[in-house]
Amino acid sequence: MPENLEKFTSPDQSKKTGKLTPEEIKEMVEKYKEEHEGLLPEYFSLPGEEKEEEREYPEELLIYYQLKEKLKPIEQGLKNETLIKNMFKWVFSHIQGKEAGLSTFFGYFHLFSFPKFQEIKERYPKEIQKIEQGLKNETLRKNAIKETLSYIQNGKKKIRDAWLGFISYFSLFFYSKFKEIKEKYPKEIQKIEQGLKNETLIKNMIEYILFTIRQGRGGDWAYAMEAFNSYASLLNCPNCREIKQKYPKEIQKIEESLKNETLVKNAIEGIIFYIKEGQKQEKDLRIYSSAYDAFVSYSYLLSYLSHLYKIGQKKLAEIESQKAMHPEKKLPPMPEEKAF
Q: How far is CA 297 from CA 96, 120, 275, in A?
């Protein structure tokens, strides 16, 4: 006799053993449904027959995943060896000399922000070490602080300089040795952080972002990229929360405008152009600059994507919470009255 008797039981034998087969159970349920039609709720079903509930996703998460797909070719392009080497050449050209300053911090920060940075660091340890050593140069650090303060001062009159003020602090702030700089130049860093709270500067920064969005939607991909760059800088400034609270309408307008498909398309086209230009093997500073710009624009777009994801996740949690607190109840239809 087989060990598992149930496994070898035929449908006819099930009545003798006192057990029903799955087919018999289904038949009984269907019969019950027919007999009680109109009295059962719509969601009555057998295990496994339930309809999967359609999940509602916030617009931000949908855009996030769409953009992630669109950025895959760019991520592949940024792995190009010639492009990376040209990026290094651009950064090296800004490390030394009296003019060395913010550009070096920009270059290193955007390279550091690249998701595959660790791979680059392992493949080019000498180049990365050279940059990191260069960033410790006191003249370079002083120049970076001086440039940032100058942009903040000029940004009260010129909207593009307002953006440069925010973007300069953004690059300094995310430098791994920023704490060292802040400890060595506390007054200067405090002056920068206070300057970024200036009302006129903030208004000019917002005006510049809206300007770049308009231009970017109109077909200028350089401005399309700058729209994302500038908003990412604003998102990462120390007083971002205060700005959002004080200018909710303006910030909402920016966030809605950045979702524009034409703007996104133009920004991606711009990055692809820089990647193609930056892969050329000619000795030309403009080619090195294109390689640098490819990493710059991509890293800022990533920062914006991260922001979208956080908003989307927050909204999704709120949706799920509301559903849990107020589950949808479906009442069964009223049975028809039958004349006797």
A: 24, 18, 11
pLDDT 10s digits, 85-142: 998 888 888 776 555 666 667 666 666 666 677 788 888 899 888 888 888 888 888 8
Non-local (6+) Cβ contacts of 43 within 8 A are 50, 51, 330
Instruction: Write down the pTM of the prediction.
Output: 0.73
Residue 212 counted as domain residue:
yes
Query: Considering the domain boundaries, does residue 283 fall inside one?
Result: yes
Query: 47 vs 150, which has greater pLDDT?
Result: 150
- The CA-atom distances, in angstroms, between 290 and each of 21, 149, 249, 268 are 70, 27, 35, 14
Angle 135-280-117 from CA coordinates, rounded to 5°: 40
Residue 211 counted as domain residue: yes
Range of the domain at 155: 59-321
